[in-house]
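Quick start: read one record
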Amino acid sequence: MKEITANEFEQEVLKGGKVLLDFYSTECPPCEALFPKLESLEKLFVHDIKFMKIFRQGNRDLADKLGVKGSPTLLFFENGEEVCSRLSGGIKRKEIIRDLRHLMDKKQIDSIMNSVKPTVTHTDVAILGAGPGGLTAGLYLCQAKIDTTLIDIALPGGNVSTTHMVSNYPGFIDPQPGYMLSHNMSEQTKKCGTVYKVAVDVTKVDLLKKEIIIDEFETIKAKKIIIATGTSPNRLGIPGELEFKGQGISYCATCDAKYFVDKEVVVIGGGNSAIEEADFISKFASRITIVHQFDKLQANKLAQEKAFNNPKISFMFEHEPRAFQKDGDKMLVEIEDLKTKEMKTLRSDGIFVFIGLKPNLELFGKALELDQWGYIKTNEDMQTNVEGVYAVGDVGSKKYRQITTAIADGTIAAIAITKEID
């Protein structure tokens, strides 16, 4: 993909015919996960559409002018005009293909995509998810000389890769940047020999047949499957949330806090993630307002003390957001006072939402037995109710969800599988 600067924008994009433009950032896992998808699609559409990228941090004035407030953000241009809605955040390959239809005839696109030949890959163990649990399982399995394939819709690391600092990982005296801890775990597992298929779309999973289809054309057949798909941020489900996601609303402080230097932001939530990330955001923003539905925080005491002692952070307890709106470059949050029922409006430059997590189980249908909170039930060997299928990490039913507990799960599942395959 050709990289351009703001000085080249008019000539390359506005006068460039049919263009897909990617605004990306550094230290941004969703951005890194998107690159391979764009590069593979560029090869297919090279004669019809120009694929370009621009470094958002180095071209901030242009990003602000275009209203790009999240990374990555894809814009689709034809003859200088945007032709469809923007894509941002964790962008799937099929979403890109769908929106390319605004630049090309549907029959042309279908013809190109149909030319991609299906393939079949065999492996002993397929691991779905490359967070700490999946990476640890891959490490143990490959060291046991078991053919292992690691599959993830993003880059390896899971939620750890978007965590600012990890202070409680054994073996490190000083807090470690989450992305570096994830990187080191991933490199160790990759060096061992685990096959990586990351930044892909998982089209279908058949747990009974042990088959996984990725990017709609490659079928991976395994003897065993480990589910390590982790969790995703909960959504508020209020008007404006989806519309302004990546355009003023963010779920990743590591990705986007650096774009709010000397600006005002609103943080929704009161648990560990909300309070710890608010502290990180305060390194950039001039003022942070935390909106929380309860009369006290649920975060750990240390995080609370730091937040209460941070002069940049203020709190609105017993308030809930009801809608998001946009007024020029500003974001508006309509909130309700839960005691008086009075409606208020907060005006800010951006909004960060941290209201907990949910297990990523959409791919698996109803085959798995779940607990009352929707997490996968397993036995002491991490086996699920489906023969040959295991679950590790945050996606499993457990009392505590930490990096260290995910690693323990991955270790147990890998050892159990090794004994069975041997």
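Residues 2-114 form a domain with the Glutaredoxin fold (CATH 3.40.30.10).
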